Amino acid sequence: MSAPIQAGAKVALRCEGLHRYLGQGEGRVHVLRGVSFEARSGQVTAIVGPSGCGKSTTLYLLGLLDQPDGGSIWIRDQLMSNSSDLDRTAARCEHIGFVFQFHFLMQEFSALDNVMMPMRKLGRLTEEAMVARAQSLLKDVGLGEKGHRLATQLSGGEQQRVAVARALANQPAIILADEPTGNLDVKNSGLVFDLLTRLAKENGQAVVLVTHNPDIANRCDEIRPMRDGEFVK
Ligand SMILES: Nc1ncnc2c1ncn2[C@@H]1O[C@H](COP(=O)(O)OP(=O)(O)O)[C@@H](O)[C@H]1O
Ligand SMILES: [Mg+2]
User: Fold this and answer.
1) Distance from the CA of 80 to the center of ligand 2, in angstroms?
2) Three-state SS across 141-191?
3) Which of 9, 111, 159, 224 has the greatest number of CB atoms lying within 10 Å of its CB?
4) Per residue in 130-140, pLDDT tens?
5) φ, ψ (nearest 5 deg) of residue 2
6) Cα(193)–Cα(180) distance, rounded to whole angstroms?
7) Residues with Cβ within 6 A of ligand 1?
């Protein structure tokens, strides 16, 4: 992907000076040491860096799954880092889609039900509309015929594609992906990455993904290297 960074594109997600300590007592570690970052609509940003440098911790904070010990996070223009659990959960449900390395599908549910899960949580569509949207998303990820299969009846690559469809379910402004292809072979990695980025571009979503794969990082609009709990200047 060679699209230049659009300076004018809307900032969907921004954080400034994030600090995070993890662990207790002697084991307490200063994991994030002033992380500042922004992600723009329609752009794909790769976060890269050695294991343990704080990539997942950063993504969890940006996704409002965890709270920083210092610093600020804005979703669009709304300051979220000081909001209540209830407000952060609501914002996450509406504006953020997650894809993890291990897809975390509900194994005993069908692909269709897994994709409908975030829509049920948001509660804005009728049952009929949710089914139709989930079917259309599964078609987008090449699984139009397999919606009724249980997650356990799908291959690893197929399950990860269901996870992509699920992340897109509520048309979130922001998609966060933590090593989404880390568990897949080359062919499926390419497939999942292409899907994520193509759909995000079409919908004007901001995509932030953590990856160890240089081929994938090089196909993003921007690469942000991290080291020892900070972005490298
Ligand atoms: N609960 C915890 N207690 C202490 N240290 C932790 C805890 N969770 C993560 N860490 C440390 O925080 C650092 C960053 O972790 P992480 O964000 O998962 O790194 P990355 O995703 O870049 O591999 C690591 O050094 C890890 O050991
Ligand atoms: Mg990690």
Assistant:
1) 23
2) CCCCCCCCCEHHHCCHHHHHHHHHHHHHCCCCCEEEEECCCCCCCHHHHHH
3) 111
4) 999 999 999 98
5) -120, 10
6) 8
7) 22-23, 27, 29, 31, 49, 51-57
The two three-digit tokens of residue 103, written as one number: 């897809």
Count of beta carbons in the 10 Å neighbourhood of residue 124 = 11
How far is it, in rounded angstroms, from Cα 31 to Cα 16?
A: 15
For residue 57, the CA-to-ligand 1 centroid distance in Å is 7
* Secondary structure letter of residue 4 according to DSSP: P
Of 31, 65, 224, the one to substitute when testing ligand 1's pocket (max ligand atoms within 8 A of C-beta) is: 31
Identify whether the C-beta of residue 78 lies closer than 8 Å to the C-beta of residue 91: yes
* Reported pTM: 0.91
Q: Domain spanning 11-24+31-231: which CATH class is it, in words?
A: alpha beta
% pLDDT > 70, the chain: 96
Does residue 7 register a pLDDT over 80?
no
With beta carbons less than 8 A apart as the criterion, state whether 114 and 162 touch.
yes
In the chain the beta strands, taken as DSSP E runs, fall at 11-22, 29-40, 44-48, 70-75, 78-79, 96-99, 174-178, 206-210, 222-227, 230-231
